[in-house]
Design brief:
single chain; alpha/beta; Transcription Regulator spoIIAA; 5 helices; 5 strands; globular
Length: about 130
């Protein structure tokens, strides 16, 4: 209802493009700060929409979520992206790029068992290709 207000109060830079070296791998990058607690829920909904829309635009075998430039402190709505990936992502190879800004998300993703958690985009793409270095 107040999506415009949420975007103003909680800006989030998002992009989704196929990897330049392998178009069968979709890379979704997120930069900014997730609002703490429920104040970040609107941002997470936008993230979910971006991922779903991008996956609908092609035929991919892998998905990389690049959270390296995303600040996260607490709030559980983001866990939906990790515990319950969009239906189009099911069956894909999944990788998550984390940094000290969001290490807790890497811990959550690692517990789901479906994500390859790493520190760089290159490592993530390699992991999605099945060449975990």
């Amino acid at each position: 209802m107040f999506d415009w207000l949420d975007r103003l109060l909680h800006p989030l830079d998002c992009s989704a493009t196929p990897d330049s070296g392998d178009a069968s791998i979709l890379v979704c990058s997120f930069r900014g700060s997730l609002g703490d607690g429920s104040s970040g829920n609107g941002q997470v909904v936008r993230m979910e929409r971006l991922i779903e829309d991008a996956l609908a635009g092609g035929s991919f075998r892998g998905l990389v979520l690049d959270f390296a430039a995303l600040r996260y402190t607490w709030g559980n709505h983001i866990w939906n992206v990790l515990w319950n990936p969009p239906p189009r992502a099911r069956g894909l190879r999944l990788a998550l790029v984390v940094s000290p800004l969001c290490e807790q998300l890497g811990d959550v993703a690692a517990r789901t068992g479906g994500w390859f958690v790493c520190r760089s985009r290159a490592e993530a793409i390699s992991g999605v290709r099945g060449q975990r270095e």
